[in-house]
Amino acid sequence: MNPRRKTMKVYNKQHSYYCGIDLHARTMYVCVLDKNGKKVYHKNIPCKPERFLQAIAPFREDIVVGVECIFCWYWIADLCEQEGIDFILGHALYMKAIHGVKTKNDRIDSLKIARLMRGGNFPIAYVYPPEMRATRDLMRRRNHFVRKRAELISHIQNTTMQYNLDPLGTLSRPHHRRDKDIVGHFPDPVVQLIVKTDLELIDHYDPIIKRLDKQILALAKGHDPTSLHLLKSIKGVGDVLALTMLYEIHDMNRFPSRGEFCSYARLVKGQKSSAGKNYGTTGGRIGNASRLLGRPFRKPPCYTCGAINRPKNTITV
Q1: CATH label of the domain that carries residue 43
Q2: Are residues 30 and 62 in the same domain?
Q3: Do residues 117 and 160 both lie within one domain?
Q4: DSSP three-state, residue 45
Q5: Which of 31, 202, 240, 312 could form a disulfide with 110 if both were Cys (CB 3.0 to 4.6 A apart)?
Q6: Whole-model pTM?
Q7: 108 contacts 102 by C-beta, under 8 angstroms
């Protein structure tokens, strides 16, 4: 086996009790196993902190709580931290590959999660710290607005090609659109209404995105001003890329090697092979979903700006 090849991280610490939770927005199926694998608690309860603490109260002396990484894991992670309970977050895609079965329901899923924890096969994900979590979500929301705005601009440009009209040129900034009769560029009154609607939405997005940029930058200076300054010192990296890397990576020390970081940034894909034959790649969805995170590493800014000559057939991270 190649010593440089990395496997997924699993939780293998021993406890007296293992609590697997199949978590949903309003309910949670809780399964507690003892160290011998015997079920000591297995019930569906509401997503209420007091009900959860009441359920695990007899086992709190030495218990670990495991939850699959879905959109509503924040509150249970914060509750466990406040109560001094060991908590681990499961990597959703890895868990799907491990405990896939023919029959699937909440009761079975919670038992499977607890068994994965007890057997040392629970694939762990990074528990993002709560003090920066909301700002990361705000940054992601800001990027979502930018993509929607870009879709509107692309639709206007595509409409000119659809009707074989002269190109309008750049429309990305307000001053690019200010002196152009964009609506009048289209002779059909119904098409004019379509384009006018797109422009009105773009004009709404512009100040929102600009305001969010200032607010997120101010928050970042309070969270980690040193890292923000270092990121912005890289040629070709401005506020948006620096903020994206700061909040999506958080702590580089959580990556033991450059290869694991490249995998997280979706710069590399996994390889499928058997009996010495390669069967393509896999795992393209595993890693960080942000489209901006991998950009400065796919095309390093220092090479883009011509600061240094890029060596052939090499990847630098």
Answers
A1: 3.30.420.40
A2: yes
A3: no
A4: strand
A5: 31
A6: 0.84
A7: no
